[in-house]
Amino acid sequence: MNTATIISHSLEETLNLGEKIGRQVKEATVIALSGDLGSGKTVFVQGLAKGLNVPSDYYVTSPTYTLINEYPGRIKLFHIDLYRISGFNELEEIGIYDIVYGNHITAIEWPDRFDGELPGNHLKIRIEIIDENSRKFSFYASGTQKNPLITLLKESK
Ligand SMILES: Nc1ncnc2c1ncn2[C@@H]1O[C@H](COP(=O)(O)OP(=O)(O)OP(=O)(O)O)[C@@H](O)[C@H]1O
Ligand SMILES: [Mg+2]
């Protein structure tokens, strides 16, 4: 199996989910986060950063205007938000291909605006808003870490 589904009932549960993934992930991976505005993509990345030991004085926010933020950690973390990307030319300008295919962790919000193939090691996450505090997370893992990641997610149910 390479899929898992988890319901998060609060912001804290989503932070914990991200942190668990951040602690487990061992090699370069792209984490593609889809879901409506306010579904919890950035909250998940805040947890992910904690799990990757990004120092707590870095505050992880949506890079909506800067498009890309970079954080030092156990493995370097790039956080990309393509919501405001104006076209494929801009993807080239911001150097997204070097980041996505580079040797680190890359979390991407609005990944459907990226025109390239995701590298073999990736985790796709779709978040659906159920109600004010509940979110349904659907995970699809690919690559060398898919078994440990999916096992971990199934254990956190
Ligand atoms: N279970 C939950 N998990 C995550 N966030 C939740 C949850 N319940 C409520 N929230 C709220 O939902 C919002 C999620 O905001 P966040 O910035 O992470 O969304 P986003 O998906 O990154 O949106 P955008 O596309 O605008 O960047 C926050 O206000 C948070 O408090
Ligand atoms: Mg966001």
Fold and architecture overview:
It is a single chain. The protein starts with a strand and ends with a helix. 29% of the residues lie in helices and 27% in strands. The chain has a single domain, classed as P-loop containing nucleotide triphosphate hydrolases (Rossmann fold, 3-Layer(aba) Sandwich), CATH 3.40.50. A 7-stranded mixed β-sheet has the order 1-7-6-2-5-4-3. The longest helix is centred in the N-terminal third of the chain and has 14 residues, at 11-24. It contains 5 helices and 7 strands, in the order βαβαββααβββα. With 157 residues, the chain is of the alpha/beta class. Adenosine-5'-triphosphate binds at residues 8, 10-11, 13-14, 35, 37-43, 62, 83, 109, 133-135.
Q: Which second-level CATH architecture applies? A: 3-Layer(aba) Sandwich
Biggest sheet details: 7 strands, mixed
pLDDT average, as an integer?
Answer: 95
Proportion of beta-strand residues: 25-35%
- Give the uncertain stretches in residue-range form: none
Give the topology.
Layout: E1 3-8, H1 11-24, E2 29-35, H2 41-51, E3 68-71, E4 77-81, H3 88-93, H4 96-100, E5 105-109, E6 122-129, E7 135-142, H5 146-155
Parallel strand pairs: 2-5, 2-6, 4-5
Antiparallel strand pairs: 1-7, 3-4, 6-7
Helix pairs in contact: 1-2, 1-5
Bound molecules: adenosine-5'-triphosphate and magnesium ion (MG).
Give the tags.
globular, 5 helices, 29% helix, Rossmann fold, 157 residues, binds adenosine-5'-triphosphate, alpha/beta, seven-stranded mixed sheet, binds magnesium ion
Describe this structure in a few short sentences:
With 157 residues, the protein is α/β, with parallel strands linked by helices.
